[in-house]
Task: structure prediction
Amino acid sequence: MTTTPTLERAAGGAFTGGQLLRGLPDAFRKLDPRSLRHNPVMFLVEVGAAFTTVLAIFLPVVGGSGALFTWSIAVWLWLTTLFATLAESVAEGRGKAQAASLRRTRTTTIAHRVDAYDASGDPAALRAPTSDIPSADLALGDLVVVAAGELVPGDGDIVAGIASVDESAITGESAPVVRESGGDRSAVTGGTRVLSDRIVVAVTSRPGETFVDRMIALVEGAVRQKTPNEIALDVLLASLTIVFVVVVLVLGPVAGFANATPSIAVLIALLVCLIPTTIGALLSAIGIAGMDRLVQRNVLAMSGRAVEAAGDVSTLLLDKTGTITYGNRQAVEFVPLPGVMETELVSAAALASLADSTPEGRSVVDLARTLRWNGLEPEGEVVPFTAQTRMSGIDLPDGSRIRKGAASAVLAWVGTVPEAVGAALATEVELISASGGTPLAVAVQADGAFRLLGTVHLKDVVKTGLKERFAALRAMGIRTVMVTGDNATTARVIAAEAGVDDVLAEATPEDKLALIRREQEGGRLVAMTGDGTNDAPALAQADVGVAMNTGTSAAKEAGNMVDLDSDPTKLIDVVTIGKQLLITRGALTTFSIANDVAKYFAIIPAMFVGVFPGLEALNVMRLHSPDSAILSAVIFNALVIVALIPLALRGVRFRATGAARLLRTNLLVYGLGGVIAPFVGIKLIDLVVGLIPGL
Amino acid sequence: MAAWLLVAQVATLVVLLAACYRPLGDHMARTFTSDHDLAVERGLYRALGVDPRAEQSWRNYLRSVLVFSVVGVLLLYVLQRAQALLPYSLGLPPVPEGLSFNTAISFVTNTDWQSYSPETTMGYTVQLAGLAVQNFASAAVGLAVAVALVRGLAARRSSTIGNFWVDLVRAVLRVLLPLSVVAAIVLLAGGVIQNFSGFQTVHTLTGGTAVIPGGPVASQEAIKELGTNGGGFFNANSAHPFENPSGWTNLFEVFLLLLIPFSLPRTFGTMVGDRRQGTAVLGAMATLYLASLTAMALLETAGGGAATQAAGAAMEGKETRFGVLSSVLFATSTTLTSTGAVDASHDSLTPLGGFVALVNMMLGELAPGGVGSGLYGLLVIAVIAVFLAGLMIGRTPSYLGKQVGGREIKLASLYILTTPVLVLTGLGLSFGIPALTRSLTGTSILNPGQHGFSEVLYAFVSAANNNGSAFGGLTANTPWLNASLGAVIFLGRFVPIVFVLALAGAFAAQAPRPATEGTLPTHTPLFVVVVVGTVVLVSALTYFPVLALGPLAEGLHP
Result:
């Protein structure tokens, strides 16, 4: 409809006419003044619409003229209100669909409650009597038995047993996950299905307050509380509205002094055009859509406040293992000792690792393959790794034996070595350790003689693309801190490689908590992820605590967000969404206020040009007639809401750059664009409206 | 007069103000942060029963401001009513009740709206002990409130924002008084009179006689300009040769108007520990000032009409000593500083020139604004600008590390609401109630049509913004205007101060968040643009309709 970059871009969004249609019934329902009352700006528009309608109806009775004009204004004011409610219902639409599918998982199931649980004698409750009750009647602390094929009746922790669980109802992930008693993987969620084995679950939430219940409430927007920034924005919008109400109220008598009293319909039209209807109409849709974007990324925020805080985060605590690195050490280099052919070392190390199914073992083979080693799994006896020997290896049928493991263990196995060889090995081991890696010594015994071959360099491998993401975070003013249990040397090497700003090495949960407190003391907002029970205090202390869905219920309870995919790097997405939410609000507010300039230039000359012909100079858009000018401004005011719905739902595009550049771009697009766009839009609408006879 | 003369005058002003910016700004910062009391100050504190080291919460600070001001109003009222009993009263009768009330409020609020002709109403004692004293006191109150807000921004988890009595005493003794002494001496040298000779009858060259007034003018003229008060010793104000004898005193008076308001950003920057922030505030003030000056100069020189063409320039109502452009310089400065002193009749500006004078006041007196009030006005606008801009970069907005949340936005919005609501309510009542409208059209309004409306509009805008200048032609000494303008002046001064001090308290209680790459930089030219845009947009949106019906309806021709 208009030509601003904003609107053009918005048209390309994932937003269909179907969504609008589906939202319509609900939009009409929301016209109920009782539900519109929470939005003062749009409530005022509705009152104006009703008032104008009454005026239009009684116009013939009192013998006034301009019925067509008054009716047109009334209709477009109703449409303005409807477009606002439509925006909200479209935003809620997606959440509603999601809630419906979640609700299906909440169907009442029969729970097998253990009546007399004997934790020591019969932990698996094999002999204990059970009674079958509806899941809705479960109480906190009840113990239930869930067997393969059954639905978990409520949120809880596994107290005995291990099972594979299908959590696709909640996470959308079809691969089953393993849940077992004890440790950090003990939580099960009501509504998920046990696929194998049998578990005993202690119920940790009352029916109606389960995780799924909370999810439903969240995605439906039922528990949407206004966030601090939303409240502040509401105050600003209310103040602007008050000023404009006063402006319009005073205009009557003041214009009366010049015998230029405008009609009430015109005054209402002016008021509606001036008050910030655009942002007023879209504000709640922006908030709902922001939460929805999180849900689409499988993150559940327990409050909008947390999402907003995510935008403000200035320190990000990231666990090393699993977040920054792949979680397992991988072989990166074979280092043969002097006088040993590299191929011999590669071959020995690979042979020793072929039967080793640990990630480390596989990585040795993978590295060997890249060096064109193409041996097959040999016949022979596999010697598994034990904590005592600290070695693993293989005894080949030809009698030769290969061992790899900690340097000291392998040295002990080999026995005496020439001094030069021992020194060379020690140097290499030290070098690898100093670089943050783990050295793995390899030795072979063939024909009764022991020979040290060299070392395999294992190291933590930083996930690809992280360095760039951290750089982007730094540009946004966010400091990343890597938290690890490793010693300081190792930690610093990984940190340098990943490009994080700071390291907390040999970290205990207490250290983590202390770090968060320290950062907050300095006025910084901290975000972190965690899954273990011992993460819970830190998760609770952090301003944004993202708990992994695989984590314990304690962790999930303590955090203010839950990541269903249990992907710690998603913290970065959360921050982006938080920022995007605020930017969208700010941009549309600026756009809305800037729009007023053009509307004044349309309406004010139209109102008074009859008495003061000189004011025609202000009619810079050269609009057709006073009536068409006012009506065009009202129509623009209504249509711009619809045009901006996609932008409100999708959010303003956000690029990770410094604040200054971001502000410049957004000011140009939404500030300057907001001044210019309505001049073009109103002119275009006027060209059409001007064709209507009688206006 | 050639345009180059205006350029030369502005250049001189810029050089003078730039030379004073650092020393005066830093001096004021030291004044309001120092732990040292002068002997005379200690004596004053003892007399007042004030512990100079005891800090006040914003509520107590506000209470002190209000108590001091209300007592000031009462004293000034009594002084005027008792005029007949006072020495050096030149035989003048007591000032009438309504007028005393209006004048007392007007001078205590730094407005100096004058519904009377001073030389025939106020004797020397009332002028010196009443009006001049309030010229110092009201300016000091403005400074104190501004400094309190700056302290709030600079504080860290503090429940207090300073001590009003200390700020007041120091503002008078260490800033206003020394500057006034120097300024008065310069004015004396320039020919401004200073005597107690009363009215003198002189024989003119043509053989007739004339009565000319005397008085201690230079001493009062200095603080009238320095304190952005604007209440003239004579009715003609700075158009009177005894107040403003020559071209260069005219320029010097403009310099005095701008001196403190334009130096306060330095004080602000120094006190918050980041001088670049002060420079940005200065940048916003200077941008608005220069834009307005240019606009008025262009509009006044282009002024049309038969009389203008006959005279060669829009000289009606302007002093031949100053000419059009010097009058424009003075008019711009006086309306942008909440001073209200005039060296030409603003009623006689061309309609569109008068439009600029009106808009200057509508901006909210913040470019650079009154002493103190300009700085706090601009900082409040900066808070609003920070809020919008802060959201647009995706963070909870913060200014100088202090968050702008619901409470802060509420206070800033209320501040910005106050003046327009006062102006518009005044206009609405004036033109909405037939009896009042009759009083206006019958007695007050001199000119017919929309110019008459502009006179009333100007009066309310000037009163609500505590400017005090008048669109001559309006007879304001009527019950309705004395009462309504008095009320508007009072509320226009103290309601915003309530919000400013509450804002200071809200900011002071916060712990600042450190600045990062992701926080909004508030010292850049871009931020200056945002602030200027916010100022213009907020006032334009509020006043566009009444401006269209006033000066625009009059000034735009088909």
About this structure: Chain A touches chain B through 78 residues (CB under 8 Å). The first strand of chain A starts at residue 110 and ends at 114. The CA atoms of residues 383 and 393 of chain A lie 5 Å apart.
